[in-house]
Write a structure and sequence with these properties.
Length: 484
């Protein structure tokens, strides 16, 4: 092993959102780089001008940063190998394509769209592989110059030598071979002067000194073309690692039809970045044991490409939800407070003006009962407004003839509490039940219904303590008037 610095890149095309599969690729690159004390580079592959989306690059960077995967080099960050936007590197590609043309490794193609369509139709009819027939290779230097001078539109193609074995090693899949006959004379420079993915990708990986190309399996069929380019340029190839496909639970390729695929969707739904990262990391990788809960630091220490599986990884939403709850439990109340305030400001309680102390009490009381920060609101709206109605079923089952009386006495007694504590409320409630010779539930259930409108929630003494005596008295009073 040489001790060359490890340099990897995440090279998304800016489509407007970050796909979950893209986040996985970014994450594995990040983890691999950080584990090896190397560099994680962000390069934007924006040479397809038809697919240009305004604001997509900014969005990508902010989503990656949200997830904690900040690049060491990239647009906005800079670095020694920039620019990191391919659309700003056109001169570099032009310079490199010239060399390939001079060496006969690529060539101008002036074929019209009509000819290409005709060729394809003919090949289809003959049921042979549809690919370019090297028609334009026959032109002499003079003919080519002549056409160029006359501004005949052209593309530049890769000159693939027929019937050659193309072989490369993949860290995850082992040896991969292709016959060059199956490979088209790929366009390297398009008629608009922009490079195609294949050409720009290889030139940049070389110039940016990328040591390992870690990307999704869908790119494996492009790799022989890339390998040819490295060889034609006489450049050292990087190592390749193609990550397994992401699958829906029915084993079909992960698609929008069966659920959300944009990272932004998961952010909006309130998933914690730590949980999402933990979940994504396990889509195709494990440390060789059954550990499932990881922080980003733990992942960085444990990650290796040897631990990546060949077979597709099934996206299991239940596991993500479970991990979200686990991670939420490990976050400090102060951190949850910040997130909860943000959720409140986006909710119908945006005018809520309770204190931080009040919210912290809710957080503590509900901690074991929520899987998402927004459930601190959804599961207990009664902390943000008094109940306006009462659960029918609970009412039928729990509101007894003696409930009004019990609640009235309870109200009178708690009003006397000078500095109320949870224990204070508990003492009063227990004593009253003892006096009346009834089980605690006889009072707890109607009390909970009066205070919250529902039959479940945090411990009753937490509930009453958080609401406080004054608010609790009002709510009991209102319930006594409304529940008949
Ligand atoms: N631009 C390609 C993409 O959108 C990059 C593939 C690669 O990593 O080579 O995923």
């Amino acid at each position: 092993m040489s001790d060359k610095e490890i340099r990897v890149r995440f090279a998304p095309s800016p489509t407007g959102y970050l796909h979950i599969g893209g986040l996985r690729t970014a994450l594995y690159n990040y983890l691999f780089a950080k584990n090896k004390k190397g560099k994680f580079i962000l390069r934007i592959e924006d040479t397809d001008r038809n697919r240009y989306v305004e604001g997509a690059v900014e969005n990508l960077i902010s989503t990656l940063n949200w997830a904690g995967l900040q690049a060491d080099e990239g647009p906005k960050y800079g670095g020694d190998y920039g620019p990191y936007l391919q659309s700003e590197r056109l001169d570099i590609y032009n310079e490199h394509i010239k060399k390939l043309i001079d060496d006969g490794k690529s060539y101008y193609c002036f074929c019209t769209q009509e000819r290409l369509t005709e060729l394809r139709e003919k090949q289809k009819k003959e049921t042979i592989q549809t690919k370019y027939d090297k028609h334009c290779l026959k032109f002499s230097k003079e003919e080519i110059d002549n056409k160029l001078n006359n501004n005949i539109p052209f593309v530049i193609r890769l000159n693939v030598e027929p019937n050659k074995k193309i072989l490369f090693n993949d860290i995850i899949r082992g040896e991969v071979t292709f016959n060059s006959d199956t490979i088209d004379d790929q366009i390297l420079i398009k008629s608009d002067g922009f490079p195609t993915y294949h050409f720009a990708n290889v030139v940049d990986d070389h110039l940016m000194k990328i040591t390992h190309v870690i990307r999704g399996e869908e790119w494996i069929s492009s790799t022989p073309k890339h390998v040819l380019l490295y060889d034609y340029f006489n450049w050292e190839r990087p190592q390749f690692a193609h990550l397994p496909l992401l699958l829906n639970s029915d084993k079909s390729k992960l698609s929008k039809r069966q659920g959300d695929v944009a990272v932004e969707d998961y952010m909006q739904k309130g998933y914690l970045k730590n949980a999402l990262i933990n979940f994504i990391a396990l889509l195709g990788w494990n440390a060789g044991d059954d550990k499932e809960y990881y922080t980003l630091d733990e992942l960085t220490n444990a990650f290796s490409l040897e631990g990546v599986n060949k077979s597709g990884a099934v996206f299991n939403l239940e596991k993500l939800n479970w991990l979200n709850a686990e991670h939420l439990r490990n976050i400090s109340n102060d951190e949850i407070l910040i997130m909860l305030k943000d959720e409140i400001s986006k909710s119908k309680y945006s005018n809520f003006n309770g204190t931080d102390e009040y919210l912290l009490l809710i957080i503590e009381a509900m901690k074991e009962r929520v899987s998402f920060v927004k459930e601190y609101i959804e599961k207990c709206p009664y902390f943000f407004e008094p109940p306006s109605e009462y659960d029918e079923k609970v009412m039928k089952k729990r509101w007894k003839e003696d409930s009004p009386d019990l609640l009235k006495i309870f109200s009178q007694r708690i009003e006397q509490l000078v500095s109320p504590t949870k224990e204070g409320y508990e003492r009063i409630l227990k004593k009253l039940c003892e006096e009346k010779e009834i089980g605690l539930g006889r009072l707890i259930h109607p009390l909970r219904l009066a205070l919250s409108g529902v039959g479940i929630g945090p411990g009753i003494f937490d509930l009453i303590f958080i609401l406080g005596t004054e608010e609790s008295l009002k709510r009991i009073d209102k319930a006594l008037n409304q529940i008949k």
